[in-house]
Amino acid sequence: MKTYKINIGEIRNYVDELCAGDMVYLSGTAYTSRDAAHKRIFELIDKGEKLPYDIDGACIYFAGPTPAPEGLAIGSCGPTTSSRMDVYSPRLLDLGLSAMIGKGGRSNAVCEAIVRNKGIYFCAVGGAGALCSKHITSCEEIAFHDLGCESVKRLELTDFPVFVGIDAHGGTLFKA
Asked: How far, in Å, CA of 48 to CA of 135, rounded?
């Protein structure tokens, strides 16, 4: 296992060398999205309407952060169970999504889409939302404001600690 410091905009330059289990410190822009936001994003895609952010090259963090306490960019921001987004993830990867951050295993269809599109699935430590939030330097709500914590937010990450859960070669932490 290796350790990397990677800017999110350069993930595609690293996918061939990243392996399941590698430690990565991510910096750059990521977008929060969970079930309700994914559903709305797909409604926009199906209608051919503009999305709140460009999917091509993007990194989605499956999280629903709590409100920011005074003086902080964000409240607790731990990962959501990723399998809830499995119905959406293959199509987003086919549209150019580079990376996802969450927790837990993924379906075979998602694993196949990761390999097919040379994507990556990162795992953040569940139950460590307060620790994760220390690596988020800004948070801006950009879409679906009525969804509260499930709205889409643009986050700026600095050395956000994750592990490669599923790599672009099909390596995974989730199968024996």
From this structure: 34
pLDDT tens column, 30-51: 999 999 999 999 999 999 999 9
* Distance of alpha carbon 61 from alpha carbon 80, whole angstroms: 8
Mean pLDDT confidence for 99-125: 96
Number of other residues whose CB lies within 10 A of the CB of residue 20:
20
Tell me the C-alpha to C-alpha distance, in Å, between residue 10 and each of 14, 97, 161.
Answer: 7, 13, 16
Residues belonging to the active site: 38
To which residue do tokens 């999280």 refer?
63
- Amino acid identity of residue 171, one-letter, is G
Indicate the pairing of strand 59-61 with strand 23-32. Answer: parallel
Q: What is the residue-wise DSSP string for 76-126? A: --PBPBGGGGTTTHHHHHHTT--EEEEBS---HHHHHHHHHHT-EEEEPPT
Query: CA 4, CA 2: separation in Å to the nearest integer?
Result: 7
pTM: 0.95
